DNA sequence: ATTTTATTTCGTAATCATTCCTATTTACAA
DNA sequence: TTGTAAATAGGAATGATTACGAAATAAAAT
């Protein structure tokens, strides 16, 4: 794989976290998926390799990886989902309702909103677009 | 109260739903609160009046009222929250992390995003700003 | 190579939001 | 006023998530 797993190893080490096999496979799984995945999704995918992988491990690692900003999280239909975070530029996502694929959206008017609401202090914001990606739009039968 | 509860009664009847005491008190509670509230919030507030009000009733009514667009919903820290919907114009919210007060934001660049992502079909979107409202910002001790 | 420390297991249990089930009650139409 | 369809109470069930604690394992530091 030409995936730059080293940057993730470095990040783990920088945070005094150990580079374990399971952790790396979770990161790889999320890199390969490149969409929001639930704890169960990840367990399913890694089941052949690690049949006895405990939920405890998955949840703990998802939490840890989100904490060091390797992952970003969002709630999709009641379940927490995670995906690899992109740290190079601020962005949000379009999420396909059918296949779960995500697309990056760049435009973010947070300054516009800050000036619309002068008296408040915006500390955080969530933007998500939902719908059908090109492929799923084609595949739809009406 | 000068609150126009009649429009809500009409809306219920239009949808062949019964105008019950509990339903109307839930609507009143949400009107008075005018912020996102959880099922538990509502149960707490109505407890003196209806000590035995069942969760089923609360959840079913929240769902029903969202369904007929009397309420809008969002997930806040893992819990579903509801507030009275404004149907006259499209908008989103700023939500105060401290007191839960909401402020309407008008600017919504959904067309901009649609042209940024030509191939997808945006069917839905979620925009939420979080932070401190004017009052809570003042009240903060640093 | 040895030690130290973090991580995983594993089984189980607690928690919490939400939903489901059935008997009973209520709103409202006829 | 009566019939019936909808709504509710009360509690059990579900499902995601977190917690736990001790033993086993693995990673990294010396």
UniProtKB/TrEMBL annotation, chains A, B:
<protein>
    <recommendedName>
        <fullName>Ferric uptake regulation protein</fullName>
    </recommendedName>
</protein>
<keyword id="KW-0678">Repressor</keyword>
<comment type="function">
    <text>Acts as a global negative controlling element, employing Fe(2+) as a cofactor to bind the operator of the repressed genes.</text>
</comment>
<comment type="similarity">
    <text>Belongs to the Fur family.</text>
</comment>
<keyword id="KW-0963">Cytoplasm</keyword>
<keyword id="KW-0238">DNA-binding</keyword>
<dbReference type="Pfam" id="PF01475">
    <property type="entry name" value="FUR"/>
</dbReference>
<dbReference type="InterPro" id="IPR036388">
    <property type="entry name" value="WH-like_DNA-bd_sf"/>
</dbReference>
<dbReference type="InterPro" id="IPR002481">
    <property type="entry name" value="FUR"/>
</dbReference>
<dbReference type="InterPro" id="IPR036390">
    <property type="entry name" value="WH_DNA-bd_sf"/>
</dbReference>
<keyword id="KW-0804">Transcription</keyword>
<keyword id="KW-0805">Transcription regulation</keyword>
<dbReference type="InterPro" id="IPR043135">
    <property type="entry name" value="Fur_C"/>
</dbReference>
<keyword id="KW-0862">Zinc</keyword>
